[in-house]
Amino acid sequence: MNTDRYLYALDDHPPLALSLLYAVQWAVIVFPAFVIAAKIVAQAMGLPPSSETRFLQMTLLCSGLGTLFQTLWGHRYPLVEGPSTAHLLTFVSLSPLGLGAVQGASLAASLCLAAASATGILRPLLRLFTPNVVGVILMLIAFSLLPHLIPPMLGLDSQHTDASMPVLTVSLALVLLMAVMGHRLRGLWKTCHIALGLLLGTVVFAFFGRILWAPVFAAPWLSLPRPWTSFSPQWRGDAFMAFLLTYVAIAVNSMGSMQGIAAVTDTARLNVALRRGLLTTGISGMVCALFGVVGSVSYSTGPGVVLASRVASRFPLAWCGLLITAAAFLPKLAAALTLIPPAVVASALCVAMAGQFGAGLSVIAAGRTLAARDYFVVGIPVLVGTLLAFLPQSFIVSLTGIGRIFLGNGLVSGIVLVMFLEHCVFIQAKRERHP
Fold this sequence. Notes:
By secondary structure, the protein is mostly helical. It has 22 helices and two strands. The chain has one domain (3-433). It has helices at 16-45, 49-72, 85-94, 99-119, 122-125, 131-144, 146-153, 165-184, 188-191, 193-206, 214-218, 237-264, 270-291, 302-309, 315-327, 331-337, 342-365, 372-389, 393-398, 401-407, 410-425, 427-433; strands at residues 81-83, 296-298. The protein has a two-stranded antiparallel ribbon. The longest helix is centred in the first third of the chain and has 30 residues, at 16-45.
Protein backbone atom coordinates (compact mmCIF):
# COMPACT_ATOMS: atom_id res chain seq x y z
CA MET A 1 0.00 0.00 0.00
CA ASN A 2 1.20 3.51 -0.77
CA THR A 3 1.17 5.03 2.71
CA ASP A 4 2.28 8.50 1.53
CA ARG A 5 -1.25 9.48 0.47
CA TYR A 6 -2.82 8.59 3.83
CA LEU A 7 -2.56 10.24 7.22
CA TYR A 8 -3.06 6.85 8.83
CA ALA A 9 -2.46 3.52 7.11
CA LEU A 10 -4.59 0.40 7.41
CA ASP A 11 -3.14 -0.90 10.69
CA ASP A 12 -2.22 2.46 12.25
CA HIS A 13 -3.84 3.61 15.50
CA PRO A 14 -4.89 7.29 15.30
CA PRO A 15 -5.13 9.20 18.60
CA LEU A 16 -8.30 8.39 20.51
CA ALA A 17 -9.89 11.81 19.98
CA LEU A 18 -9.35 11.62 16.22
CA SER A 19 -10.52 8.02 16.10
CA LEU A 20 -13.79 9.03 17.76
CA LEU A 21 -14.19 11.95 15.36
CA TYR A 22 -13.66 9.69 12.36
CA ALA A 23 -16.05 7.15 13.91
CA VAL A 24 -18.82 9.74 14.21
CA GLN A 25 -18.24 10.72 10.59
CA TRP A 26 -18.68 7.11 9.45
CA ALA A 27 -21.81 6.73 11.59
CA VAL A 28 -23.43 9.81 10.05
CA ILE A 29 -22.75 8.44 6.57
CA VAL A 30 -24.31 5.01 7.17
CA PHE A 31 -27.27 5.91 9.42
CA PRO A 32 -29.55 6.64 6.42
CA ALA A 33 -29.23 3.00 5.32
CA PHE A 34 -30.44 1.79 8.70
CA VAL A 35 -33.43 4.14 8.58
CA ILE A 36 -34.28 3.03 5.04
CA ALA A 37 -34.30 -0.66 6.01
CA ALA A 38 -36.48 -0.02 9.07
CA LYS A 39 -38.97 2.08 7.11
CA ILE A 40 -39.41 -0.39 4.25
CA VAL A 41 -39.81 -3.42 6.52
CA ALA A 42 -42.21 -1.53 8.80
CA GLN A 43 -44.33 -0.59 5.80
CA ALA A 44 -44.33 -4.13 4.38
CA MET A 45 -45.19 -5.81 7.70
CA GLY A 46 -47.52 -3.09 8.99
CA LEU A 47 -45.49 -2.52 12.15
CA PRO A 48 -46.70 0.06 14.71
CA PRO A 49 -44.29 2.89 15.71
CA SER A 50 -43.08 1.04 18.81
CA SER A 51 -42.21 -2.09 16.82
CA GLU A 52 -40.54 0.02 14.13
CA THR A 53 -38.36 1.63 16.79
CA ARG A 54 -37.45 -1.79 18.18
CA PHE A 55 -36.63 -3.02 14.67
CA LEU A 56 -34.28 -0.08 14.14
CA GLN A 57 -32.65 -0.69 17.54
CA MET A 58 -31.94 -4.33 16.71
CA THR A 59 -30.66 -3.31 13.26
CA LEU A 60 -28.24 -0.91 14.94
CA LEU A 61 -27.13 -3.61 17.38
CA CYS A 62 -26.48 -6.24 14.69
CA SER A 63 -24.81 -3.78 12.31
CA GLY A 64 -22.63 -2.27 15.03
CA LEU A 65 -21.40 -5.63 16.28
CA GLY A 66 -20.90 -6.82 12.70
CA THR A 67 -18.75 -3.78 11.90
CA LEU A 68 -16.71 -4.28 15.07
CA PHE A 69 -15.95 -7.95 14.40
CA GLN A 70 -15.29 -7.48 10.67
CA THR A 71 -12.74 -4.71 11.18
CA LEU A 72 -10.93 -6.44 14.05
CA TRP A 73 -11.11 -10.10 12.99
CA GLY A 74 -13.00 -10.63 9.71
CA HIS A 75 -11.82 -8.93 6.53
CA ARG A 76 -9.92 -6.26 8.59
CA TYR A 77 -10.67 -3.48 6.12
CA PRO A 78 -12.31 -0.07 6.75
CA LEU A 79 -15.81 -1.14 5.71
CA VAL A 80 -19.10 -0.60 7.55
CA GLU A 81 -21.61 -3.45 7.95
CA GLY A 82 -25.26 -2.61 7.40
CA PRO A 83 -28.61 -3.99 6.15
CA SER A 84 -28.31 -5.67 2.76
CA THR A 85 -30.64 -4.42 0.04
CA ALA A 86 -30.78 -7.93 -1.47
CA HIS A 87 -31.78 -9.41 1.89
CA LEU A 88 -34.27 -6.58 2.39
CA LEU A 89 -36.02 -7.43 -0.88
CA THR A 90 -36.40 -11.10 0.01
CA PHE A 91 -37.42 -10.23 3.58
CA VAL A 92 -40.22 -8.00 2.30
CA SER A 93 -41.39 -10.40 -0.41
CA LEU A 94 -41.63 -13.27 2.09
CA SER A 95 -43.22 -11.23 4.87
CA PRO A 96 -46.75 -12.54 4.03
CA LEU A 97 -45.51 -15.99 5.14
CA GLY A 98 -44.83 -14.64 8.63
CA LEU A 99 -41.71 -13.74 10.57
CA GLY A 100 -41.13 -17.37 11.56
CA ALA A 101 -40.73 -18.48 7.95
CA VAL A 102 -38.41 -15.55 7.26
CA GLN A 103 -36.27 -16.34 10.31
CA GLY A 104 -36.01 -20.04 9.55
CA ALA A 105 -35.08 -19.59 5.90
CA SER A 106 -32.63 -16.77 6.59
CA LEU A 107 -30.93 -18.74 9.36
CA ALA A 108 -30.46 -21.81 7.17
CA ALA A 109 -29.18 -19.79 4.18
CA SER A 110 -26.70 -17.77 6.26
CA LEU A 111 -25.47 -21.01 7.82
CA CYS A 112 -24.79 -22.32 4.31
CA LEU A 113 -22.72 -19.22 3.50
CA ALA A 114 -20.71 -19.57 6.71
CA ALA A 115 -20.09 -23.27 6.07
CA ALA A 116 -19.11 -22.69 2.44
CA SER A 117 -16.66 -19.98 3.48
CA ALA A 118 -15.14 -22.04 6.29
CA THR A 119 -14.63 -25.14 4.15
CA GLY A 120 -13.37 -23.29 1.06
CA ILE A 121 -15.95 -24.79 -1.30
CA LEU A 122 -17.19 -21.32 -2.18
CA ARG A 123 -14.11 -20.35 -4.18
CA PRO A 124 -14.69 -22.73 -7.17
CA LEU A 125 -18.28 -21.49 -7.41
CA LEU A 126 -17.05 -17.94 -7.90
CA ARG A 127 -16.17 -18.79 -11.49
CA LEU A 128 -19.88 -18.85 -12.27
CA PHE A 129 -20.13 -15.17 -11.42
CA THR A 130 -19.08 -13.66 -14.71
CA PRO A 131 -19.35 -9.89 -15.33
CA ASN A 132 -22.78 -10.45 -16.90
CA VAL A 133 -24.08 -12.30 -13.82
CA VAL A 134 -22.66 -9.82 -11.32
CA GLY A 135 -23.91 -6.83 -13.32
CA VAL A 136 -27.43 -8.24 -13.59
CA ILE A 137 -27.54 -8.87 -9.83
CA LEU A 138 -26.51 -5.28 -9.10
CA MET A 139 -29.09 -3.85 -11.50
CA LEU A 140 -31.91 -6.12 -10.34
CA ILE A 141 -31.39 -5.12 -6.71
CA ALA A 142 -32.09 -1.56 -7.84
CA PHE A 143 -35.07 -2.32 -10.09
CA SER A 144 -36.73 -4.79 -7.73
CA LEU A 145 -37.11 -2.06 -5.12
CA LEU A 146 -39.12 0.21 -7.41
CA PRO A 147 -42.59 -1.14 -6.46
CA HIS A 148 -41.80 -0.39 -2.81
CA LEU A 149 -40.75 3.19 -3.62
CA ILE A 150 -43.80 4.26 -5.61
CA PRO A 151 -46.42 4.38 -2.78
CA PRO A 152 -44.34 6.49 -0.37
CA MET A 153 -43.31 8.89 -3.15
CA LEU A 154 -47.03 9.36 -3.87
CA GLY A 155 -47.66 10.03 -0.20
CA LEU A 156 -49.68 6.84 0.33
CA ASP A 157 -49.65 5.29 3.82
CA SER A 158 -52.04 4.10 6.52
CA GLN A 159 -53.18 7.66 7.23
CA HIS A 160 -53.20 8.99 3.65
CA THR A 161 -55.09 6.92 1.08
CA ASP A 162 -55.06 9.44 -1.78
CA ALA A 163 -52.02 10.18 -3.92
CA SER A 164 -50.53 13.62 -3.35
CA MET A 165 -49.04 15.64 -6.20
CA PRO A 166 -47.12 17.95 -3.80
CA VAL A 167 -45.51 14.92 -2.11
CA LEU A 168 -44.52 13.44 -5.48
CA THR A 169 -43.11 16.79 -6.63
CA VAL A 170 -41.02 17.24 -3.50
CA SER A 171 -39.86 13.61 -3.67
CA LEU A 172 -38.64 13.97 -7.25
CA ALA A 173 -37.01 17.30 -6.41
CA LEU A 174 -35.15 15.61 -3.55
CA VAL A 175 -33.90 12.89 -5.91
CA LEU A 176 -32.48 15.52 -8.24
CA LEU A 177 -31.06 17.60 -5.39
CA MET A 178 -29.26 14.66 -3.74
CA ALA A 179 -27.86 13.58 -7.09
CA VAL A 180 -26.54 17.08 -7.77
CA MET A 181 -25.03 17.32 -4.28
CA GLY A 182 -23.37 13.96 -4.74
CA HIS A 183 -21.82 15.23 -7.96
CA ARG A 184 -20.97 18.82 -7.00
CA LEU A 185 -19.89 18.57 -3.37
CA ARG A 186 -16.28 17.82 -2.59
CA GLY A 187 -14.35 16.10 0.17
CA LEU A 188 -16.26 14.66 3.09
CA TRP A 189 -19.41 16.62 2.17
CA LYS A 190 -19.64 14.50 -0.96
CA THR A 191 -19.99 11.33 1.11
CA CYS A 192 -22.77 12.90 3.22
CA HIS A 193 -25.05 14.04 0.40
CA ILE A 194 -27.73 11.44 1.21
CA ALA A 195 -27.69 12.34 4.90
CA LEU A 196 -28.04 16.03 3.96
CA GLY A 197 -30.95 15.20 1.66
CA LEU A 198 -32.70 13.22 4.40
CA LEU A 199 -32.35 16.14 6.80
CA LEU A 200 -33.63 18.71 4.30
CA GLY A 201 -36.51 16.49 3.19
CA THR A 202 -37.61 15.91 6.77
CA VAL A 203 -37.69 19.66 7.41
CA VAL A 204 -39.79 20.24 4.28
CA PHE A 205 -42.29 17.47 5.09
CA ALA A 206 -42.65 18.79 8.64
CA PHE A 207 -44.54 21.70 7.09
CA PHE A 208 -46.84 19.17 5.36
CA GLY A 209 -47.86 17.73 8.73
CA ARG A 210 -46.52 14.28 7.79
CA ILE A 211 -44.28 13.74 10.83
CA LEU A 212 -45.51 12.01 13.99
CA TRP A 213 -43.73 13.44 17.01
CA ALA A 214 -45.54 11.39 19.67
CA PRO A 215 -43.27 8.28 19.43
CA VAL A 216 -40.19 10.44 20.10
CA PHE A 217 -41.70 12.07 23.19
CA ALA A 218 -42.93 8.71 24.48
CA ALA A 219 -39.62 6.85 23.98
CA PRO A 220 -37.27 6.64 26.99
CA TRP A 221 -33.71 7.91 26.81
CA LEU A 222 -32.17 4.60 27.82
CA SER A 223 -33.58 1.06 27.71
CA LEU A 224 -33.10 -2.39 26.28
CA PRO A 225 -34.91 -3.31 23.04
CA ARG A 226 -38.01 -5.31 23.94
CA PRO A 227 -38.60 -8.01 23.13
CA TRP A 228 -34.99 -9.05 22.54
CA THR A 229 -36.17 -11.65 20.09
CA SER A 230 -39.28 -13.59 19.18
CA PHE A 231 -37.33 -16.42 17.58
CA SER A 232 -39.79 -19.00 16.29
CA PRO A 233 -38.24 -20.35 13.06
CA GLN A 234 -40.33 -22.34 10.63
CA TRP A 235 -38.95 -24.49 7.85
CA ARG A 236 -40.19 -23.81 4.34
CA GLY A 237 -38.18 -25.17 1.45
CA ASP A 238 -39.38 -22.53 -0.99
CA ALA A 239 -38.44 -19.69 1.35
CA PHE A 240 -35.04 -21.32 1.95
CA MET A 241 -34.33 -21.41 -1.79
CA ALA A 242 -35.17 -17.71 -2.06
CA PHE A 243 -32.83 -16.78 0.77
CA LEU A 244 -30.11 -19.11 -0.52
CA LEU A 245 -30.06 -17.20 -3.80
CA THR A 246 -30.21 -13.96 -1.83
CA TYR A 247 -27.05 -14.91 0.05
CA VAL A 248 -25.42 -15.58 -3.29
CA ALA A 249 -26.09 -11.91 -4.11
CA ILE A 250 -24.84 -10.86 -0.66
CA ALA A 251 -21.63 -12.83 -1.17
CA VAL A 252 -21.08 -11.13 -4.53
CA ASN A 253 -21.74 -7.71 -2.98
CA SER A 254 -19.35 -8.40 -0.08
CA MET A 255 -16.59 -9.62 -2.38
CA GLY A 256 -16.98 -6.52 -4.54
CA SER A 257 -16.72 -4.25 -1.49
CA MET A 258 -13.61 -6.03 -0.23
CA GLN A 259 -11.95 -5.96 -3.64
CA GLY A 260 -12.73 -2.25 -3.98
CA ILE A 261 -11.27 -1.27 -0.60
CA ALA A 262 -8.26 -3.56 -1.14
CA ALA A 263 -7.43 -1.69 -4.35
CA VAL A 264 -6.96 1.57 -2.42
CA THR A 265 -5.44 0.11 0.76
CA ASP A 266 -3.75 -3.31 0.76
CA THR A 267 -4.22 -6.14 -1.74
CA ALA A 268 -1.81 -8.50 0.03
CA ARG A 269 -4.41 -9.58 2.57
CA LEU A 270 -7.28 -9.89 0.10
CA ASN A 271 -7.32 -13.69 -0.21
CA VAL A 272 -7.51 -14.17 3.55
CA ALA A 273 -9.94 -11.27 3.84
CA LEU A 274 -12.38 -12.84 1.39
CA ARG A 275 -12.54 -16.10 3.33
CA ARG A 276 -12.77 -14.57 6.79
CA GLY A 277 -15.01 -11.73 5.67
CA LEU A 278 -17.58 -14.04 4.08
CA LEU A 279 -17.46 -16.34 7.10
CA THR A 280 -18.20 -13.38 9.37
CA THR A 281 -21.01 -12.28 7.02
CA GLY A 282 -22.58 -15.71 7.32
CA ILE A 283 -22.34 -15.68 11.12
CA SER A 284 -23.72 -12.15 11.21
CA GLY A 285 -26.64 -13.30 9.05
CA MET A 286 -27.42 -16.01 11.61
CA VAL A 287 -27.47 -13.41 14.39
CA CYS A 288 -29.74 -11.15 12.31
CA ALA A 289 -32.11 -14.07 11.75
CA LEU A 290 -32.20 -14.68 15.51
CA PHE A 291 -33.33 -11.10 16.13
CA GLY A 292 -35.64 -11.02 13.11
CA VAL A 293 -33.92 -8.19 11.21
CA VAL A 294 -32.44 -7.74 7.75
CA GLY A 295 -29.08 -9.47 7.20
CA SER A 296 -25.98 -7.33 6.85
CA VAL A 297 -23.37 -6.81 4.17
CA SER A 298 -20.12 -4.85 3.81
CA TYR A 299 -21.00 -1.49 2.26
CA SER A 300 -19.13 -0.31 -0.81
CA THR A 301 -18.83 3.33 0.34
CA GLY A 302 -15.51 2.59 2.05
CA PRO A 303 -13.09 3.51 -0.76
CA GLY A 304 -14.73 6.90 -1.32
CA VAL A 305 -14.59 7.86 2.35
CA VAL A 306 -11.02 6.61 2.71
CA LEU A 307 -9.78 8.57 -0.29
CA ALA A 308 -11.66 11.71 0.74
CA SER A 309 -10.52 11.70 4.36
CA ARG A 310 -7.02 10.31 3.73
CA VAL A 311 -7.57 7.97 6.68
CA ALA A 312 -7.24 4.28 5.78
CA SER A 313 -7.05 2.98 9.35
CA ARG A 314 -9.58 0.27 10.23
CA PHE A 315 -9.65 1.12 13.92
CA PRO A 316 -11.94 4.17 13.65
CA LEU A 317 -14.39 1.73 12.06
CA ALA A 318 -14.18 -0.43 15.18
CA TRP A 319 -15.08 2.65 17.26
CA CYS A 320 -17.89 3.35 14.79
CA GLY A 321 -19.21 -0.16 15.42
CA LEU A 322 -19.20 0.52 19.15
CA LEU A 323 -21.04 3.84 18.64
CA ILE A 324 -23.70 2.20 16.47
CA THR A 325 -24.10 -0.58 19.05
CA ALA A 326 -24.50 1.98 21.85
CA ALA A 327 -27.18 3.80 19.83
CA ALA A 328 -29.26 0.61 19.93
CA PHE A 329 -29.84 1.23 23.64
CA LEU A 330 -30.99 4.83 23.17
CA PRO A 331 -34.65 4.47 22.08
CA LYS A 332 -35.21 8.21 21.85
CA LEU A 333 -32.44 8.45 19.27
CA ALA A 334 -33.84 5.45 17.40
CA ALA A 335 -37.35 6.95 17.46
CA ALA A 336 -36.00 10.30 16.23
CA LEU A 337 -34.31 8.56 13.30
CA THR A 338 -37.63 6.94 12.33
CA LEU A 339 -39.23 10.38 12.06
CA ILE A 340 -37.84 10.67 8.54
CA PRO A 341 -40.92 10.48 6.25
CA PRO A 342 -41.20 7.45 3.94
CA ALA A 343 -41.24 9.74 0.88
CA VAL A 344 -37.85 11.17 1.87
CA VAL A 345 -36.43 7.71 2.48
CA ALA A 346 -37.71 6.55 -0.92
CA SER A 347 -36.07 9.55 -2.61
CA ALA A 348 -32.75 8.77 -0.95
CA LEU A 349 -33.02 5.15 -2.02
CA CYS A 350 -33.66 6.23 -5.63
CA VAL A 351 -30.34 8.07 -5.62
CA ALA A 352 -28.47 5.19 -4.00
CA MET A 353 -29.93 2.63 -6.41
CA ALA A 354 -29.12 4.84 -9.40
CA GLY A 355 -25.47 4.57 -8.40
CA GLN A 356 -25.82 0.82 -8.03
CA PHE A 357 -27.36 0.55 -11.50
CA GLY A 358 -24.40 2.47 -12.91
CA ALA A 359 -22.03 0.12 -11.11
CA GLY A 360 -23.79 -2.82 -12.73
CA LEU A 361 -23.35 -1.31 -16.18
CA SER A 362 -19.65 -0.67 -15.56
CA VAL A 363 -19.10 -4.26 -14.42
CA ILE A 364 -20.74 -5.67 -17.56
CA ALA A 365 -18.92 -3.43 -20.03
CA ALA A 366 -15.51 -3.14 -18.34
CA GLY A 367 -12.62 -3.87 -20.68
CA ARG A 368 -14.51 -5.78 -23.38
CA THR A 369 -16.73 -5.43 -26.41
CA LEU A 370 -20.21 -6.81 -25.88
CA ALA A 371 -21.46 -9.47 -28.29
CA ALA A 372 -25.04 -10.15 -29.37
CA ARG A 373 -25.35 -12.93 -26.78
CA ASP A 374 -24.54 -10.48 -23.98
CA TYR A 375 -27.53 -8.30 -24.85
CA PHE A 376 -29.88 -11.23 -24.27
CA VAL A 377 -28.04 -12.65 -21.26
CA VAL A 378 -28.25 -9.26 -19.54
CA GLY A 379 -31.43 -7.77 -20.97
CA ILE A 380 -33.85 -10.67 -20.53
CA PRO A 381 -33.19 -11.28 -16.79
CA VAL A 382 -33.29 -7.54 -16.03
CA LEU A 383 -36.59 -7.04 -17.86
CA VAL A 384 -38.24 -10.23 -16.55
CA GLY A 385 -37.04 -9.60 -12.99
CA THR A 386 -38.35 -6.04 -13.07
CA LEU A 387 -41.65 -7.17 -14.60
CA LEU A 388 -42.16 -9.75 -11.87
CA ALA A 389 -41.46 -7.13 -9.22
CA PHE A 390 -44.57 -5.23 -10.38
CA LEU A 391 -46.98 -8.19 -10.28
CA PRO A 392 -50.02 -7.45 -8.07
CA GLN A 393 -49.64 -8.65 -4.50
CA SER A 394 -53.07 -10.28 -4.66
CA PHE A 395 -51.83 -12.52 -7.48
CA ILE A 396 -48.63 -13.42 -5.61
CA VAL A 397 -50.58 -14.33 -2.46
CA SER A 398 -52.79 -16.66 -4.50
CA LEU A 399 -49.75 -18.72 -5.52
CA THR A 400 -48.22 -21.52 -3.46
CA GLY A 401 -44.79 -23.04 -2.95
CA ILE A 402 -42.06 -22.41 -5.48
CA GLY A 403 -44.39 -20.36 -7.67
CA ARG A 404 -44.82 -17.71 -4.98
CA ILE A 405 -41.08 -17.56 -4.28
CA PHE A 406 -39.91 -17.19 -7.87
CA LEU A 407 -42.75 -15.12 -9.28
CA GLY A 408 -42.97 -12.97 -6.17
CA ASN A 409 -39.28 -12.06 -6.05
CA GLY A 410 -37.83 -10.46 -9.16
CA LEU A 411 -34.30 -10.60 -7.77
CA VAL A 412 -34.37 -14.36 -7.17
CA SER A 413 -35.95 -15.03 -10.58
CA GLY A 414 -33.42 -12.78 -12.30
CA ILE A 415 -30.44 -14.53 -10.68
CA VAL A 416 -31.70 -17.95 -11.73
CA LEU A 417 -32.46 -16.73 -15.26
CA VAL A 418 -29.12 -15.01 -15.85
CA MET A 419 -27.25 -18.08 -14.58
CA PHE A 420 -29.26 -20.30 -16.92
CA LEU A 421 -28.75 -18.07 -19.95
CA GLU A 422 -25.06 -17.41 -19.29
CA HIS A 423 -23.97 -20.97 -18.56
CA CYS A 424 -26.51 -23.15 -20.36
CA VAL A 425 -28.43 -21.52 -23.21
CA PHE A 426 -25.65 -19.39 -24.70
CA ILE A 427 -22.69 -21.51 -23.67
CA GLN A 428 -21.85 -22.57 -27.25
CA ALA A 429 -21.90 -19.01 -28.55
CA LYS A 430 -19.61 -18.03 -25.71
CA ARG A 431 -17.09 -20.72 -26.65
CA GLU A 432 -17.11 -19.59 -30.26
CA ARG A 433 -16.30 -16.05 -29.24
CA HIS A 434 -13.44 -17.18 -26.98
CA PRO A 435 -11.84 -20.14 -28.77
